[in-house]
Amino acid sequence: MIFPLKRNPITRTLGLLLALTFACAFAPKSACALQIEGVEIPPQVKVGGTTLHLNGAGMRTLSPMGIPINLYVASFYSPTPIRSEKAALAAVAPLQFNFTFLQGVNQGIISRAWREQFSQSITETYPGYEHDKDAFLRMVGNLDKYGRDTIEFVGDDTRVLDSGNLIGTIHGRNFQKAYLCLLFGPKPASSQLKPVLLGLSSTPKK
């Protein structure tokens, strides 16, 4: 008769850790959680009852006077991989975008930054665009360090959340197209983040 080998708890724990390490090492890129500048980025989220997968994530920095400042960590979730500008501009709900700020910022600074990005990046408008843009700007508020703005596409609605709390909704596919243009169009708000969110490059993880 062959008796099973007894394993002590420490051996079992080490075995589980080793198995998890190998699982993450050989799993697809989006299968394991990431951490960038202390911000944990889960591999999956749920939006409108649908499981979305991490498409890309990275950090935006600015370098005024040559001194780099880390502003926020962004992540983009979609049902299937999106790897090109054309595919991103045509993407439909459900989608989720997260922006976790690495510095505390007030509503005035955030609103002004979004307003400048809209003015620089939106190449096509539509009747009612100014109304929708202003509604969006009123929804962004003060954020403490590690506060998170989330933008979700659910059906034809764009939902704005502040650290998980729903602030408001903008109706219509037109605004979704404008928002996608802001991030992925020919004049994106951040040329640094565009390829990162498309999963074509990566930000060093710290």
Using only CA atoms, what is the Rg? 20 Å
Number of DSSP helices? 6
Q: What is the chains' assembly state?
A: single chain
* Estimated helix fraction: 25-40%
String of helices and strands: HEEEEEHEHHEEEHH
How is the largest sheet built, in terms of strand order?
A: 3-4-5-6-7-8-9
Amino-to-carboxy terminus distance: 52 Å
The biggest sheet amounts to: 7 strands, antiparallel
Structural class: alpha+beta
What amount of the residues lies in strands? 25-35%
Sum this structure up briefly:
The chain is an alpha+beta fold and 206 residues long. It contains 6 helices and 9 strands, in the order αβββββαβααβββαα. It has a 7-stranded antiparallel beta sheet.
Structure description:
The chain has 6 helices and 9 strands; from the N terminus they run H-E-E-E-E-E-H-E-H-H-E-E-E-H-H. It has about 210 residues and is α+β, with helices and mostly antiparallel strands. The protein has one domain: Chalcone isomerase, CATH 3.50.70. The protein has a 7-stranded antiparallel sheet with strand order 3-4-5-6-7-8-9. Strands 1-2 form a two-stranded antiparallel ribbon. A hairpin with a 2-residue loop joins strand 7 and strand 8. The N terminus is likely disordered.
